[in-house]
């Protein structure tokens, strides 16, 4: 399987710290898969103007192709002003409507307020569902107080990340097996 870990913010460090840790957990336990880590902080995406995603160039093409090629995506996003960041919304706009069809997607959300879990529930999940993603219902929600000067300080975050990684890989494998069985049933 192709697994993409995507840190979907172009500012701050917390989402990158948590997604990098999830990527390290994947490398340690699931290195047999094709693993990719992308941090949008390191990329320069141009604004969507309605073109087909393959008509873009540079970082924009690299990121959209990585999303389209992935079987599984672990998506990390911060919550800013009670909403997903503009760079993530732009990424969704760059992709076709059914871009996440047959892909398993899980989420890691960083936020300053406990109440921002509603953004994942009422904004992000509906967007992922609209784009036809097979969404892992549980996600890791990390608050600002879970971080210290040296990164993640709450040990429970490591446990929840490990669980998320394992559940995501298991759901992704299972879903891919179902898709393969469905295709094999056609006999051609």
Can you describe this structure?
- This protein is of the alpha/beta class and 188 residues long.
- The chain has one domain: Rossmann fold (3-Layer(aba) Sandwich).
- Helix content is 43%, strand content 20%.
- It contains 5 helices and 8 strands; from the N terminus they run E-H-E-H-E-H-E-H-E-E-E-E-H.
- Strands 1, 2, 3, 4, 5 and 6 form a 6-stranded parallel beta sheet that branches. Strands 7-8 form a two-stranded antiparallel sheet.
- Strand 7 and strand 8 form a beta hairpin.
- Helix 1 crosses helix 5.
- The longest helix is centred in the last third of the chain and has 30 residues.
- It starts with a strand and ends with a helix.
- The model has no long low-confidence stretch (mean pLDDT 95).
Strand content: 15-25%
CATH superfamily: Flavodoxin domain
Please identify the structural class as seen in this structure. alpha/beta
Give the termini distance in whole angstroms: 23 Å
SSE topology string: EHEHEHEHEEEEH
What does the overall shape look like? globular
Helix content: 40-55%
CATH topology heading? Rossmann fold
- Averaging pLDDT over every residue, what do you get? 95
What secondary-structure arrangement, pairings included, does this model have?
Elements: E1 2-7, H1 14-29, E2 34-39, H2 58-69, E3 72-78, H3 86-94, E4 104-111, H4 117-130, E5 134-135, E6 140-143, E7 147-148, E8 151-152, H5 155-184
Parallel strand pairs: 1-2, 1-3, 3-4, 4-5, 4-6
Antiparallel strand pairs: 7-8
Helix pairs in contact: 1-5
């Amino acid at each position: 399987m192709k697994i993409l870990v995507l840190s979907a913010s172009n500012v701050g460090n917390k989402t990158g710290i948590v997604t990098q840790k999830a990527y390290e957990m994947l490398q340690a336990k699931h290195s047999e898969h094709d693993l990719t880590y992308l941090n949008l902080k390191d990329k320069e995406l141009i604004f969507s103007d309605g073109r087909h995603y393959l008509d873009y160039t540079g970082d924009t093409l690299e990121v959209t192709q990585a999303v389209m090629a992935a079987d599984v995506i672990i998506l990390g996003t911060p919550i800013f002003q009670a909403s997903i960041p503009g760079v993530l919304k732009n990424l969704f706009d760059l992709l076709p409507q059914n871009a996440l069809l047959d892909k398993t997607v899980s989420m890691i959300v960083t936020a300053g307020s406990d109440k921002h879990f509603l953004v994942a529930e009422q904004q992000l999940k509906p967007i992922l569902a609209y784009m036809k993603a097979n969404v892992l219902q549980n996600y890791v929600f990390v608050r600002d107080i879970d971080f210290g000067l040296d990164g993640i300080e709450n040990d429970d975050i490591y446990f929840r990340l490990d669980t998320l990684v394992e559940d995501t890989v298991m759901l992704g494998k299972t879903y891919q097996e179902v898709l393969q069985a469905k295709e094999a049933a056609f006999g051609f």
